[in-house]
Specification:
Blueprint lengths: L5 H9 L3 H10 L1 H10 L1 H11 L14 H6 L1 H17 L11 H8 L6 H16 L3 H12 L4 H10 L2 H19 L6 H10 L1
Helix pairs in contact: 1-4, 2-3, 3-4, 9-10, 11-12
Length: 196
């Protein structure tokens, strides 16, 4: 199952009364929750597009107990999206090779189902074909998980553009080393890997 079909979400958001949804989020969380249940995709997309600091809305619905009970994955994605908005990704985010749906796929937990793992593998393969600093940081953050958010933050801070350049430089010699059947070229292929 696709976590959020962007095209469908745009259509659903078009029929959403955004002002009323935002008012209910401030004054009547039960009404906001009902709106979300009736228009999940439109509400999710609107919430992600309107979050602080870029959008200006501080959403209360993700902290509402009935919402947490019924939509735990959506709450985790919204929480992850909020962290992205607060600067968990570097300013080179415009270079990303991932669409919104790919970014959401990385954030959605758990990664347990075989279908989800296959879709996740496709996202990682897309990054490996053209690794961008911001996308690798997303993978690092998602891999560590929610329970170790301090560790994820430390890893992302440590993964500087310089480290990324070393990673990109390492890919080609590592692929050659792995493809060296019977270690015939090991003497020639090992030194570049160790040098990096």
């Amino acid at each position: 199952m696709v976590f959020l079909n962007h095209e469908a979400a745009v259509h659903e958001m078009a029929r959403l009364d955004k002002a009323a949804f935002e008012r209910d989020d401030k004054a009547d969380l039960a009404a906001a929750f009902d709106t979300f249940k009736n228009n999940r995709d439109g509400c999710l997309l609107h919430m992600m597009q309107s979050m602080r600091p870029l959008g200006g809305v501080e959403w209360n619905l993700p902290k509402f107990a009935p919402f947490l009970a019924k939509y735990p994955t959506e709450e985790m994605v919204l929480d992850g999206w909020m962290r992205i908005q607060k600067g968990a990704t570097p300013p080179d985010d415009s270079e990303s090779v991932l669409c919104l749906e790919d970014q959401l796929m990385l954030q959605a937990k758990p990664w347990g189902s075989s279908e989800h793992r296959l879709r996740l593998r496709n996202v990682v393969d897309k990054i490996l074909r053209d690794p961008k600093h911001c996308d690798v940081r997303r993978v690092l953050s998602a891999a560590v998980g929610e329970k170790d958010s301090d560790e994820a933050s430390d890893m992302c801070v440590a993964y500087t553009p310089e480290v990324h350049a070393q990673f990109v430089a390492l890919l080609k010699p590592l692929k050659a080393l792995v493809s060296d059947v019977g270690n015939k070229e090991r003497q020639a292929l090992h030194p570049p890997v160790f040098a990096i």
